[in-house]
Automatic annotation (TrEMBL):
Top-level taxon in the UniProt lineage: Bacteria
Keyword Transmembrane helix applies: yes
Name by which UniProt lists this protein: Prenyltransferase
Keyword field: Membrane, Transmembrane, Transmembrane helix
PROSITE patterns xrefs: PROKAR_LIPOPROTEIN
The organism of origin for this protein: Flavobacterium anhuiense
Transmembrane spans: 12-35, 41-61, 73-91, 97-117, 129-148, 163-182, 202-220, 226-243, 250-270
Keyword Nucleus: no
């Protein structure tokens, strides 16, 4: 039991789980826009997520606080280094325009973590901004990059899917912010800190309504995808309803973050 918990903690702390969620969203993008499986693109996002998230999570811990590095953190550092190498490998298999846009997304991630401006905190600590930066980065990495690399034009469907993807990630982060309410710095002005837990839940539930109905306006609309999306929406609604600051960390770090993975698996099993 102890070994299983340690493995699960490593799996979550090393950002493999969140990377799988991003990978799943890339595969959803391939499915929605009928893009043939693009291994370099999918694994570039997967390993890039590991690098980006571990950089965000552990940079301050090591660089600023100079905390002693334990065994798990050393293994995570090795995994992150291997991921950096693989990101570089897959980066050179992408089209030039995709490379340029991906550098821009990385720059936003760096801005989120490092204080580039004198006497200013990093973007992660800017009041009320965190949720929008993270959502935009996810949209860019899991939707914009795959379409650019596949040379698919930005049609109305693209913009609808961008709005849907932004809403999805925004709502996922809302659940995280509800659980982190007791630990977040009040100066962050997260959504639950600003409007309260009850209104945050109402906001999240309300946003999922246009998320689903926007599917009707997609030119490739089909009932099977709409039904799968509805199941995913109901799943998310339940996570929002039962979210509270007393929940275990696994509620968000494993179950909520697994929503995109469940979504992708539903699509895969439907195809079989």
């Amino acid at each position: 039991m102890i070994v299983s918990k340690r493995f699960l903690d490593f799996y979550l702390n090393s950002s493999i789980h969140v990377a799988l969620s991003c990978y799943a969203l890339v595969r959803i993008t391939f499915h929605v826009f009928h893009i043939q499986y693009d291994e370099p693109m999918a694994f570039f996002v997967f390993f890039g997520t590991i690098v980006g998230y571990n950089f965000v999570k552990y940079d301050a811990l090591v660089r600023v606080k100079k905390n002693p590095i334990g065994t798990q953190l050393k293994i995570i550092a090795i995994l992150s280094f291997i991921s950096v190498v693989l990101v570089g490998y897959y980066f050179f298999h992408l089209k030039r325009i995709t490379q340029i846009v991906s550098v821009g997304i990385f720059a936003i991630t760096a801005l989120y973590t490092l204080p580039f401006f004198p006497n200013r905190k990093n973007a992660r600590n800017w009041a009320g901004v965190k949720i929008y930066i993270v959502a935009l980065c996810w949209v860019g990495a899991t939707l914009v990059l795959p379409l650019i690399n596949a040379e698919i034009p930005f049609t109305t469907d693209f913009f609808i899917k961008c709005i849907q993807r932004f809403i999805l990630v925004f709502v996922l982060i809302l659940v995280f912010e509800i659980l982190d309410l007791a630990n977040d710095d009040p100066h962050l002005q997260t959504v639950p800190q600003t409007i309260g837990v009850k209104r945050t839940k109402i906001l999240g539930l309300s946003l999922l309504v246009p998320f689903w109905f926007l599917e009707i306006f997609v030119s490739t609309f089909n009932y099977h995808d709409a039904f799968i999306n509805l199941i995913m929406v109901i799943m998310l609604m339940l996570f929002i309803i039962f979210a509270n600051p007393n929940r275990s960390k696994y509620y968000t770090s494993f179950w909520v973050e697994a929503v995109p993975i469940f979504w992708w698996l539903m699509v895969v099993f439907y195809k079989i």
